[in-house]
Amino acid sequence: MYLLFFGYGLAFFLMGFAILLYPKGGSRYKLAKNIWLIGAFGISHGVVEWIDMFFTIEQNKPLLLQGISLVLLALSYLFLLCFGLRMISEKLEKLPFFTLVAALSPLPLSILILIGQSSDPFLLGNILTRYCIGIPGIILSAYALYLRFEYLKKLKLPRIETAFKLLIASLLLYAVAAGIIVPDAHFFPASTLNYTTFENTFGFPVQLLRGVIALVAAYTVLELLSIFRHETETKLQKFAHAIEESDDNVVITDINGIVEYLNPSFEKHTGYQLETVRERKINFLRSGKHDDTFYEQMWNTLLSGECFRGHLVNKKKSGELYHEYKTIVPIKDRNNHIIYFVSTGKDITEFIKLEEQLEMLAATDSLTGIWNRMKFDEQLNYELTRAKRYDHPLGVILFDIDHFKNINDTYGHPEGDHVLKAIAAITQKSVRESDLFARWGGEEFILLLPYTTLEQASAFAERLRLEIEMFDFGQMGSITASFGVSAYYPDDTIDTVMKRVDAALYHAKNGGRNQIASL
Length: 519
Prior knowledge:
Blueprint: H1 2-21, H2 30-34, H3 36-58, H4 63-88, H5 97-103, H6 106-115, H7 121-154, H8 160-180, H9 195-202, H10 206-245, E1 249-254, E2 259-262, H11 264-270, H12 274-277, H13 292-303, E3 308-315, E4 321-332, E5 338-347, H14 349-363, H15 373-390, E6 394-401, H16 404-411, H17 413-430, E7 436-441, E8 444-450, H18 454-470, E9 481-487, H19 494-510, E10 516-518
Parallel strand pairs: 9-10
Antiparallel strand pairs: 1-2, 1-5, 3-4, 4-5, 6-8, 6-9, 7-8
Protein backbone atom coordinates (compact mmCIF):
# COMPACT_ATOMS: atom_id res chain seq x y z
CA MET A 1 0.00 0.00 0.00
CA TYR A 2 2.80 2.43 0.83
CA LEU A 3 4.12 2.09 -2.73
CA LEU A 4 0.70 3.13 -3.96
CA PHE A 5 0.76 6.22 -1.76
CA PHE A 6 4.29 6.99 -2.94
CA GLY A 7 3.36 6.63 -6.62
CA TYR A 8 0.18 8.67 -6.15
CA GLY A 9 2.04 11.45 -4.35
CA LEU A 10 4.88 11.30 -6.86
CA ALA A 11 2.43 11.68 -9.76
CA PHE A 12 0.99 14.89 -8.26
CA PHE A 13 4.37 16.20 -7.18
CA LEU A 14 5.90 15.70 -10.62
CA MET A 15 2.86 17.33 -12.25
CA GLY A 16 3.21 20.40 -10.05
CA PHE A 17 6.99 20.53 -10.37
CA ALA A 18 6.82 20.24 -14.18
CA ILE A 19 4.20 22.98 -14.40
CA LEU A 20 6.19 25.37 -12.24
CA LEU A 21 9.42 24.71 -14.16
CA TYR A 22 7.87 24.84 -17.62
CA PRO A 23 8.77 28.16 -19.32
CA LYS A 24 5.60 30.24 -19.45
CA GLY A 25 7.08 33.70 -19.81
CA GLY A 26 5.82 35.74 -22.73
CA SER A 27 2.61 33.74 -23.19
CA ARG A 28 -0.40 35.91 -23.93
CA TYR A 29 -2.90 33.34 -22.66
CA LYS A 30 -4.52 33.74 -19.26
CA LEU A 31 -4.43 29.98 -18.63
CA ALA A 32 -0.64 29.96 -19.01
CA LYS A 33 -0.33 32.90 -16.60
CA ASN A 34 -2.44 31.24 -13.88
CA ILE A 35 -1.40 27.60 -14.37
CA TRP A 36 1.18 27.95 -11.60
CA LEU A 37 -1.70 27.58 -9.14
CA ILE A 38 -2.37 24.06 -10.43
CA GLY A 39 1.36 23.39 -10.10
CA ALA A 40 1.27 24.58 -6.47
CA PHE A 41 -1.76 22.34 -5.91
CA GLY A 42 0.10 19.33 -7.32
CA ILE A 43 3.19 19.79 -5.15
CA SER A 44 1.30 20.43 -1.90
CA HIS A 45 -1.13 17.57 -2.62
CA GLY A 46 1.75 15.19 -3.41
CA VAL A 47 3.39 16.02 -0.09
CA VAL A 48 0.09 15.22 1.70
CA GLU A 49 0.05 11.77 0.10
CA TRP A 50 3.65 11.13 1.14
CA ILE A 51 2.76 12.01 4.71
CA ASP A 52 -0.11 9.49 4.48
CA MET A 53 2.46 6.97 3.19
CA PHE A 54 4.56 7.63 6.29
CA PHE A 55 1.53 7.01 8.49
CA THR A 56 0.94 3.68 6.71
CA ILE A 57 4.57 2.55 7.05
CA GLU A 58 5.12 3.61 10.65
CA GLN A 59 1.64 2.80 11.93
CA ASN A 60 2.06 5.98 13.94
CA LYS A 61 0.48 9.40 13.48
CA PRO A 62 2.29 12.20 15.35
CA LEU A 63 -0.06 15.09 16.11
CA LEU A 64 2.26 17.70 14.54
CA LEU A 65 2.55 15.73 11.32
CA GLN A 66 -1.21 15.23 11.19
CA GLY A 67 -1.71 18.96 11.65
CA ILE A 68 0.77 19.73 8.84
CA SER A 69 -0.97 17.24 6.59
CA LEU A 70 -4.37 18.82 7.22
CA VAL A 71 -3.06 22.35 6.58
CA LEU A 72 -1.33 21.29 3.34
CA LEU A 73 -4.48 19.52 2.17
CA ALA A 74 -6.54 22.67 2.74
CA LEU A 75 -3.90 24.84 1.03
CA SER A 76 -3.74 22.55 -1.99
CA TYR A 77 -7.47 22.86 -2.58
CA LEU A 78 -7.33 26.60 -1.97
CA PHE A 79 -4.84 26.83 -4.84
CA LEU A 80 -7.41 25.17 -7.10
CA LEU A 81 -10.19 27.43 -5.83
CA CYS A 82 -8.09 30.51 -6.51
CA PHE A 83 -7.25 29.22 -10.01
CA GLY A 84 -10.93 28.75 -10.81
CA LEU A 85 -11.86 32.22 -9.57
CA ARG A 86 -9.08 33.93 -11.52
CA MET A 87 -9.93 32.10 -14.71
CA ILE A 88 -13.63 32.93 -14.46
CA SER A 89 -13.36 36.61 -13.65
CA GLU A 90 -11.03 39.09 -15.38
CA LYS A 91 -11.48 41.41 -12.40
CA LEU A 92 -9.93 38.77 -10.13
CA GLU A 93 -6.85 38.46 -12.34
CA LYS A 94 -4.68 39.85 -9.56
CA LEU A 95 -6.55 38.15 -6.71
CA PRO A 96 -3.86 37.44 -4.07
CA PHE A 97 -3.86 33.87 -2.78
CA PHE A 98 -3.78 34.99 0.83
CA THR A 99 -6.80 37.24 0.24
CA LEU A 100 -8.70 34.08 -0.65
CA VAL A 101 -7.36 32.37 2.46
CA ALA A 102 -8.58 35.28 4.60
CA ALA A 103 -12.01 35.18 2.93
CA LEU A 104 -12.31 31.48 3.79
CA SER A 105 -11.01 31.88 7.34
CA PRO A 106 -14.43 31.07 8.92
CA LEU A 107 -14.22 27.60 7.35
CA PRO A 108 -11.31 26.33 9.48
CA LEU A 109 -13.13 27.66 12.55
CA SER A 110 -16.17 25.60 11.61
CA ILE A 111 -13.94 22.56 11.13
CA LEU A 112 -12.35 23.10 14.54
CA ILE A 113 -15.79 23.22 16.17
CA LEU A 114 -16.75 19.91 14.50
CA ILE A 115 -13.38 18.38 15.30
CA GLY A 116 -14.12 18.83 18.98
CA GLN A 117 -17.11 16.53 18.57
CA SER A 118 -15.10 13.59 17.12
CA SER A 119 -12.77 10.99 18.62
CA ASP A 120 -10.47 11.49 15.60
CA PRO A 121 -10.47 15.27 14.90
CA PHE A 122 -7.84 15.09 12.15
CA LEU A 123 -9.85 12.50 10.24
CA LEU A 124 -12.90 14.73 10.51
CA GLY A 125 -10.86 17.73 9.37
CA ASN A 126 -9.55 15.79 6.36
CA ILE A 127 -13.04 14.82 5.27
CA LEU A 128 -14.57 18.26 5.82
CA THR A 129 -11.70 19.89 3.91
CA ARG A 130 -12.38 17.63 0.93
CA TYR A 131 -16.12 18.33 1.11
CA CYS A 132 -15.99 22.08 1.79
CA ILE A 133 -12.90 23.20 -0.17
CA GLY A 134 -11.83 20.30 -2.37
CA ILE A 135 -15.06 19.66 -4.26
CA PRO A 136 -15.81 23.41 -4.85
CA GLY A 137 -12.21 24.09 -5.91
CA ILE A 138 -12.01 21.17 -8.32
CA ILE A 139 -15.44 21.76 -9.89
CA LEU A 140 -14.86 25.52 -10.14
CA SER A 141 -11.55 24.89 -11.93
CA ALA A 142 -13.24 22.48 -14.33
CA TYR A 143 -16.00 25.01 -14.99
CA ALA A 144 -13.46 27.78 -15.58
CA LEU A 145 -11.69 25.61 -18.15
CA TYR A 146 -15.01 24.78 -19.80
CA LEU A 147 -15.75 28.51 -20.20
CA ARG A 148 -12.39 28.93 -21.95
CA PHE A 149 -12.91 25.90 -24.16
CA GLU A 150 -15.10 27.63 -26.78
CA TYR A 151 -12.67 30.54 -27.02
CA LEU A 152 -9.64 28.30 -27.46
CA LYS A 153 -11.44 26.21 -30.10
CA LYS A 154 -11.59 29.33 -32.27
CA LEU A 155 -7.79 29.54 -32.22
CA LYS A 156 -7.71 26.26 -34.17
CA LEU A 157 -4.52 25.17 -32.47
CA PRO A 158 -3.51 21.54 -33.04
CA ARG A 159 -4.46 19.00 -30.37
CA ILE A 160 -5.96 21.66 -28.11
CA GLU A 161 -9.51 20.27 -28.09
CA THR A 162 -8.39 16.80 -27.03
CA ALA A 163 -6.09 18.11 -24.30
CA PHE A 164 -8.77 20.43 -22.93
CA LYS A 165 -11.42 17.72 -22.86
CA LEU A 166 -9.03 15.35 -21.09
CA LEU A 167 -8.13 17.98 -18.49
CA ILE A 168 -11.76 18.88 -17.75
CA ALA A 169 -12.72 15.19 -17.55
CA SER A 170 -9.75 14.51 -15.25
CA LEU A 171 -10.81 17.27 -12.87
CA LEU A 172 -14.42 16.15 -12.74
CA LEU A 173 -13.37 12.54 -12.11
CA TYR A 174 -10.96 13.75 -9.45
CA ALA A 175 -13.78 15.66 -7.75
CA VAL A 176 -15.42 12.28 -7.23
CA ALA A 177 -12.28 10.30 -6.42
CA ALA A 178 -10.81 12.81 -3.96
CA GLY A 179 -13.80 14.89 -2.87
CA ILE A 180 -16.56 12.33 -2.52
CA ILE A 181 -14.60 9.11 -1.97
CA VAL A 182 -13.07 9.98 1.42
CA PRO A 183 -11.59 8.05 4.37
CA ASP A 184 -14.03 5.91 6.40
CA ALA A 185 -16.02 7.82 9.01
CA HIS A 186 -19.14 7.23 11.08
CA PHE A 187 -21.16 10.12 9.65
CA PHE A 188 -22.96 10.38 6.29
CA PRO A 189 -21.94 10.45 3.47
CA ALA A 190 -18.44 9.37 4.54
CA SER A 191 -19.98 6.29 6.14
CA THR A 192 -21.26 5.15 2.73
CA LEU A 193 -18.92 6.62 0.07
CA ASN A 194 -15.41 5.91 1.32
CA TYR A 195 -12.17 4.08 0.59
CA THR A 196 -13.51 0.69 1.72
CA THR A 197 -16.71 0.75 -0.33
CA PHE A 198 -14.76 1.86 -3.43
CA GLU A 199 -12.18 -0.93 -3.11
CA ASN A 200 -14.88 -3.52 -2.42
CA THR A 201 -16.84 -2.36 -5.47
CA PHE A 202 -14.03 -1.96 -8.04
CA GLY A 203 -11.37 -4.27 -6.63
CA PHE A 204 -8.57 -1.67 -6.34
CA PRO A 205 -7.87 1.23 -3.97
CA VAL A 206 -9.07 4.71 -4.86
CA GLN A 207 -5.49 6.02 -4.58
CA LEU A 208 -4.66 4.11 -7.75
CA LEU A 209 -7.42 5.93 -9.63
CA ARG A 210 -6.22 9.24 -8.20
CA GLY A 211 -2.68 8.49 -9.36
CA VAL A 212 -3.86 7.73 -12.90
CA ILE A 213 -5.90 10.95 -12.89
CA ALA A 214 -2.85 12.87 -11.72
CA LEU A 215 -0.72 11.48 -14.55
CA VAL A 216 -3.39 12.25 -17.17
CA ALA A 217 -3.86 15.77 -15.77
CA ALA A 218 -0.07 16.32 -15.78
CA TYR A 219 0.16 15.20 -19.39
CA THR A 220 -2.73 17.38 -20.57
CA VAL A 221 -1.52 20.48 -18.72
CA LEU A 222 1.99 20.16 -20.15
CA GLU A 223 0.49 19.51 -23.58
CA LEU A 224 -1.54 22.72 -23.31
CA LEU A 225 1.49 24.71 -22.18
CA SER A 226 3.49 23.28 -25.06
CA ILE A 227 0.76 24.26 -27.53
CA PHE A 228 0.47 27.76 -26.07
CA ARG A 229 4.22 28.26 -26.09
CA HIS A 230 4.54 27.06 -29.67
CA GLU A 231 1.67 29.29 -30.77
CA THR A 232 3.10 32.29 -28.87
CA GLU A 233 6.57 31.73 -30.33
CA THR A 234 5.06 31.42 -33.80
CA LYS A 235 3.25 34.73 -33.38
CA LEU A 236 6.39 36.37 -32.03
CA GLN A 237 8.29 35.12 -35.08
CA LYS A 238 5.59 36.61 -37.31
CA PHE A 239 5.79 39.92 -35.45
CA ALA A 240 9.59 39.89 -35.67
CA HIS A 241 9.39 39.20 -39.40
CA ALA A 242 6.83 41.97 -39.82
CA ILE A 243 9.13 44.41 -37.99
CA GLU A 244 12.09 43.33 -40.11
CA GLU A 245 10.12 43.85 -43.31
CA SER A 246 8.28 46.99 -42.21
CA ASP A 247 9.00 50.24 -44.03
CA ASP A 248 8.59 52.11 -40.73
CA ASN A 249 11.65 52.87 -38.64
CA VAL A 250 11.66 50.65 -35.53
CA VAL A 251 14.01 51.19 -32.59
CA ILE A 252 14.13 49.36 -29.26
CA THR A 253 15.99 50.96 -26.36
CA ASP A 254 16.33 50.24 -22.68
CA ILE A 255 14.85 52.55 -20.06
CA ASN A 256 17.89 54.86 -20.35
CA GLY A 257 17.52 55.26 -24.12
CA ILE A 258 20.41 52.91 -24.95
CA VAL A 259 19.91 51.29 -28.37
CA GLU A 260 19.29 47.53 -28.36
CA TYR A 261 17.71 47.02 -31.79
CA LEU A 262 17.25 48.79 -35.13
CA ASN A 263 15.26 47.31 -37.99
CA PRO A 264 16.58 47.35 -41.59
CA SER A 265 14.25 50.19 -42.55
CA PHE A 266 15.81 52.44 -39.88
CA GLU A 267 19.27 51.56 -41.12
CA LYS A 268 18.25 52.31 -44.70
CA HIS A 269 16.55 55.62 -43.90
CA THR A 270 19.15 57.04 -41.52
CA GLY A 271 22.42 55.41 -42.58
CA TYR A 272 23.13 54.22 -39.03
CA GLN A 273 23.96 50.52 -38.63
CA LEU A 274 23.05 48.55 -35.50
CA GLU A 275 26.61 47.34 -34.92
CA THR A 276 27.89 50.93 -34.81
CA VAL A 277 25.23 52.43 -32.52
CA ARG A 278 24.34 49.52 -30.22
CA GLU A 279 24.83 50.55 -26.59
CA ARG A 280 24.76 54.22 -27.61
CA LYS A 281 22.06 56.66 -26.54
CA ILE A 282 19.44 57.33 -29.17
CA ASN A 283 20.10 61.08 -28.91
CA PHE A 284 22.56 60.80 -31.83
CA LEU A 285 19.46 61.50 -33.96
CA ARG A 286 18.96 64.98 -32.52
CA SER A 287 18.80 67.67 -35.19
CA GLY A 288 18.91 70.77 -32.99
CA LYS A 289 15.40 71.75 -34.14
CA HIS A 290 13.90 70.89 -30.73
CA ASP A 291 14.98 72.46 -27.46
CA ASP A 292 15.79 70.64 -24.21
CA THR A 293 12.32 71.35 -22.86
CA PHE A 294 10.77 69.35 -25.71
CA TYR A 295 12.89 66.28 -24.95
CA GLU A 296 12.37 66.68 -21.22
CA GLN A 297 8.59 66.64 -21.67
CA MET A 298 8.84 63.62 -23.97
CA TRP A 299 10.84 61.62 -21.42
CA ASN A 300 8.55 62.65 -18.59
CA THR A 301 5.62 61.29 -20.61
CA LEU A 302 7.40 57.99 -21.29
CA LEU A 303 8.70 57.46 -17.76
CA SER A 304 5.19 58.04 -16.41
CA GLY A 305 4.14 54.96 -18.41
CA GLU A 306 2.28 56.81 -21.18
CA CYS A 307 2.85 56.62 -24.93
CA PHE A 308 4.44 59.51 -26.79
CA ARG A 309 3.18 60.49 -30.23
CA GLY A 310 4.51 63.47 -32.10
CA HIS A 311 6.34 65.05 -35.02
CA LEU A 312 10.13 65.17 -34.72
CA VAL A 313 12.84 66.56 -36.95
CA ASN A 314 15.79 64.16 -36.77
CA LYS A 315 19.20 63.98 -38.40
CA LYS A 316 20.57 61.22 -40.60
CA LYS A 317 24.17 60.02 -40.44
CA SER A 318 24.89 62.14 -43.51
CA GLY A 319 23.69 65.26 -41.66
CA GLU A 320 20.51 65.52 -43.72
CA LEU A 321 17.42 66.44 -41.70
CA TYR A 322 14.22 64.45 -42.03
CA HIS A 323 10.73 64.73 -40.59
CA GLU A 324 9.34 61.75 -38.71
CA TYR A 325 6.01 61.00 -37.06
CA LYS A 326 7.05 58.92 -34.09
CA THR A 327 5.21 56.70 -31.62
CA ILE A 328 7.12 55.51 -28.55
CA VAL A 329 5.56 52.86 -26.32
CA PRO A 330 6.92 51.92 -22.87
CA ILE A 331 7.00 48.13 -22.35
CA LYS A 332 6.49 46.92 -18.77
CA ASP A 333 7.27 43.70 -16.94
CA ARG A 334 4.87 41.73 -14.74
CA ASN A 335 5.54 44.10 -11.85
CA ASN A 336 4.47 47.07 -13.98
CA HIS A 337 8.04 48.38 -14.17
CA ILE A 338 9.21 49.88 -17.48
CA ILE A 339 11.97 47.72 -18.94
CA TYR A 340 12.40 49.16 -22.44
CA PHE A 341 10.85 51.39 -25.11
CA VAL A 342 9.70 50.47 -28.60
CA SER A 343 9.73 53.34 -31.07
CA THR A 344 8.11 53.28 -34.50
CA GLY A 345 8.56 56.17 -36.90
CA LYS A 346 7.30 57.05 -40.35
CA ASP A 347 9.35 59.35 -42.56
CA ILE A 348 6.99 62.18 -43.50
CA THR A 349 9.58 64.48 -45.09
CA GLU A 350 7.91 64.43 -48.51
CA PHE A 351 4.53 65.09 -46.91
CA ILE A 352 5.93 68.07 -44.97
CA LYS A 353 7.53 69.46 -48.14
CA LEU A 354 4.24 69.09 -50.00
CA GLU A 355 2.43 70.78 -47.14
CA GLU A 356 4.90 73.66 -47.22
CA GLN A 357 4.46 73.94 -50.98
CA LEU A 358 0.70 74.07 -50.59
CA GLU A 359 1.02 76.73 -47.93
CA MET A 360 3.32 78.67 -50.23
CA LEU A 361 0.85 78.38 -53.10
CA ALA A 362 -1.97 79.54 -50.86
CA ALA A 363 0.04 82.63 -49.90
CA THR A 364 1.58 83.39 -53.31
CA ASP A 365 0.25 85.27 -56.32
CA SER A 366 0.30 82.75 -59.17
CA LEU A 367 1.25 85.28 -61.87
CA THR A 368 4.06 87.28 -60.27
CA GLY A 369 5.32 84.82 -57.64
CA ILE A 370 5.14 87.43 -54.85
CA TRP A 371 2.86 87.27 -51.79
CA ASN A 372 -0.87 87.62 -52.33
CA ARG A 373 -3.38 89.83 -50.51
CA MET A 374 -4.32 87.17 -47.94
CA LYS A 375 -0.70 86.77 -46.85
CA PHE A 376 -0.26 90.53 -46.69
CA ASP A 377 -3.32 90.96 -44.44
CA GLU A 378 -1.99 88.28 -42.12
CA GLN A 379 1.46 89.88 -41.93
CA LEU A 380 0.10 93.44 -41.60
CA ASN A 381 -1.76 92.43 -38.46
CA TYR A 382 1.41 90.88 -37.03
CA GLU A 383 3.61 93.90 -37.89
CA LEU A 384 1.11 96.41 -36.51
CA THR A 385 1.04 94.49 -33.22
CA ARG A 386 4.85 94.49 -33.09
CA ALA A 387 5.07 98.19 -33.94
CA LYS A 388 2.60 98.99 -31.18
CA ARG A 389 4.37 96.81 -28.61
CA TYR A 390 7.93 97.92 -29.34
CA ASP A 391 7.13 101.45 -30.55
CA HIS A 392 9.04 101.23 -33.82
CA PRO A 393 8.05 102.90 -37.15
CA LEU A 394 6.27 101.04 -39.92
CA GLY A 395 5.89 102.31 -43.49
CA VAL A 396 3.23 101.30 -46.04
CA ILE A 397 3.33 101.92 -49.81
CA LEU A 398 0.44 101.26 -52.19
CA PHE A 399 1.05 101.79 -55.92
CA ASP A 400 -0.55 100.90 -59.21
CA ILE A 401 0.36 101.05 -62.89
CA ASP A 402 -0.85 104.13 -64.74
CA HIS A 403 -3.28 103.53 -67.62
CA PHE A 404 -2.94 99.76 -67.30
CA LYS A 405 -6.32 99.21 -68.99
CA ASN A 406 -5.01 100.91 -72.13
CA ILE A 407 -2.03 98.50 -72.15
CA ASN A 408 -4.33 95.47 -72.07
CA ASP A 409 -6.67 96.94 -74.67
CA THR A 410 -3.85 97.98 -77.04
CA TYR A 411 -1.31 95.16 -76.68
CA GLY A 412 -3.40 92.35 -75.24
CA HIS A 413 -3.55 90.63 -71.86
CA PRO A 414 -0.36 88.57 -72.35
CA GLU A 415 1.63 91.79 -72.66
CA GLY A 416 -0.22 93.18 -69.67
CA ASP A 417 0.82 90.11 -67.66
CA HIS A 418 4.38 90.67 -68.82
CA VAL A 419 4.28 94.24 -67.44
CA LEU A 420 2.93 93.02 -64.08
CA LYS A 421 5.71 90.43 -63.77
CA ALA A 422 8.37 92.94 -64.83
CA ILE A 423 7.31 95.53 -62.26
CA ALA A 424 7.12 92.81 -59.58
CA ALA A 425 10.70 91.79 -60.46
CA ILE A 426 11.94 95.43 -60.37
CA THR A 427 10.42 95.96 -56.94
CA GLN A 428 11.60 92.58 -55.61
CA LYS A 429 15.22 93.58 -56.28
CA SER A 430 14.86 96.71 -54.18
CA VAL A 431 13.09 95.42 -51.04
CA ARG A 432 14.85 94.16 -47.94
CA GLU A 433 14.47 90.65 -46.55
CA SER A 434 12.38 92.02 -43.69
CA ASP A 435 9.97 93.84 -46.07
CA LEU A 436 6.76 92.32 -47.35
CA PHE A 437 5.85 92.85 -51.00
CA ALA A 438 2.47 91.64 -52.27
CA ARG A 439 0.10 92.00 -55.18
CA TRP A 440 -2.91 93.84 -53.79
CA GLY A 441 -5.16 93.12 -56.75
CA GLY A 442 -5.30 93.83 -60.51
CA GLU A 443 -2.51 96.29 -61.28
CA GLU A 444 -2.06 97.35 -57.63
CA PHE A 445 0.93 96.39 -55.44
CA ILE A 446 1.61 97.02 -51.76
CA LEU A 447 4.74 97.18 -49.65
CA LEU A 448 5.07 96.82 -45.86
CA LEU A 449 8.35 98.27 -44.55
CA PRO A 450 9.15 97.55 -40.86
CA TYR A 451 11.41 100.03 -38.99
CA THR A 452 10.78 102.60 -41.73
CA THR A 453 9.51 106.15 -41.15
CA LEU A 454 7.14 108.04 -43.44
CA GLU A 455 10.05 110.04 -44.88
CA GLN A 456 12.13 106.91 -45.52
CA ALA A 457 9.15 105.16 -47.12
CA SER A 458 8.54 108.18 -49.37
CA ALA A 459 12.21 108.19 -50.46
CA PHE A 460 12.04 104.50 -51.24
CA ALA A 461 8.85 105.03 -53.26
CA GLU A 462 10.49 107.78 -55.26
CA ARG A 463 13.48 105.55 -56.15
CA LEU A 464 11.12 102.80 -57.20
CA ARG A 465 9.02 105.19 -59.28
CA LEU A 466 12.10 106.29 -61.21
CA GLU A 467 13.27 102.69 -61.80
CA ILE A 468 9.88 101.76 -63.26
CA GLU A 469 9.77 104.91 -65.44
CA MET A 470 13.28 104.27 -66.79
CA PHE A 471 12.71 100.56 -67.51
CA ASP A 472 12.44 99.54 -71.17
CA PHE A 473 9.16 97.71 -71.74
CA GLY A 474 9.87 97.11 -75.43
CA GLN A 475 7.08 98.03 -77.86
CA MET A 476 5.08 99.55 -74.99
CA GLY A 477 7.81 102.08 -74.35
CA SER A 478 7.84 103.81 -70.99
CA ILE A 479 5.34 102.83 -68.28
CA THR A 480 4.77 104.80 -65.09
CA ALA A 481 3.20 104.13 -61.70
CA SER A 482 1.53 106.24 -59.01
CA PHE A 483 2.39 105.82 -55.31
CA GLY A 484 0.52 106.40 -52.07
CA VAL A 485 2.67 106.37 -48.92
CA SER A 486 1.65 106.26 -45.26
CA ALA A 487 2.96 105.03 -41.92
CA TYR A 488 1.75 103.58 -38.65
CA TYR A 489 0.66 106.12 -36.01
CA PRO A 490 -0.27 105.51 -32.38
CA ASP A 491 -3.81 104.10 -31.96
CA ASP A 492 -3.90 103.05 -35.63
CA THR A 493 -5.82 99.99 -36.72
CA ILE A 494 -5.54 98.00 -39.93
CA ASP A 495 -8.56 99.85 -41.34
CA THR A 496 -7.21 103.33 -40.56
CA VAL A 497 -3.77 102.57 -42.00
CA MET A 498 -5.21 101.10 -45.20
CA LYS A 499 -7.72 103.91 -45.68
CA ARG A 500 -4.96 106.47 -45.30
CA VAL A 501 -2.56 104.83 -47.78
CA ASP A 502 -5.43 104.32 -50.23
CA ALA A 503 -6.33 108.01 -49.92
CA ALA A 504 -2.68 108.91 -50.58
CA LEU A 505 -2.71 106.87 -53.80
CA TYR A 506 -5.93 108.57 -54.83
CA HIS A 507 -4.25 111.97 -54.40
CA ALA A 508 -1.25 110.87 -56.50
CA LYS A 509 -3.45 109.72 -59.37
CA ASN A 510 -5.65 112.79 -59.25
CA GLY A 511 -2.53 114.96 -59.17
CA GLY A 512 -1.51 113.77 -62.62
CA ARG A 513 -0.12 110.24 -62.04
CA ASN A 514 3.54 109.15 -62.07
CA GLN A 515 4.06 110.82 -58.70
CA ILE A 516 4.07 110.15 -54.96
CA ALA A 517 1.61 111.37 -52.35
CA SER A 518 2.03 110.73 -48.63
CA LEU A 519 -0.36 111.11 -45.69
